[in-house]
Amino acid sequence: IELATEEPKDGELSLVSGWGQTQNEEESRDLLRAVIVPIVDRNRCGEAYRVDFETLPESMICAGDWEEGGRDACYGDSGGPLVVDGKLAGIVSTGDGCAKPGAPGIYANVVTVREWIREVSGV
Where does the record say this protein resides (predicted)? Predict the structure, then answer.
């Protein structure tokens, strides 16, 4: 998969996939699942995680259904891809539980580690 060269914009749709749980209490599955989630503005996401970060670092991006919740990566999905326009834009990292309204998932920002990925993988 091609690596993103630009950080995704607020509201842009992304696809996250993995074999993790679909709810906080559920066991991981042996079935790959995917869900479409919108990118969440860095400042808005930083507000949700103010206890953890004074400001959300450039090395992170957020995605999730801010208003409704219900769509997110979950436990067991860490390390999985966040794809925007067919390019790897993020890597599942952390969040506050799974799919909570107002608590989007946090992803490693591939744009900030692109060169390292290329050096290590040769991609």
Answer: Secreted
Q: 67 CB contacts (<8 Å, ≥6 apart)?
A: 101
46-94 tens-digit pLDDT: 888 876 666 788 999 999 999 999 999 999 999 999 999 999 999 999 9
What is the domain-level CATH number for residue 29? 2.40.10.10
What residues make up the domain containing 76? 2-121
pTM: 0.91
| Residue 13, beta-bridge partner list | 38
| Angle, CA of 16, 27 and 103, to the nearest 5° | 45
- Adjacent-strand bridge partners of 33: 18
Cα separation, 92 vs 85, in Å, equals: 17
Tally the domains of the chain.
1
If we measure between CA atoms, which residue out of 78, 62, 74 comes closest to residue 99?
74
Cα radius of gyration rounded to whole Å, the chain:
14
| Tokens at 90, concatenated | 């993020």
* Residue 102 CA: distances (Å) to CA of 49, 67, 79, 99, 109: 10, 6, 22, 9, 20
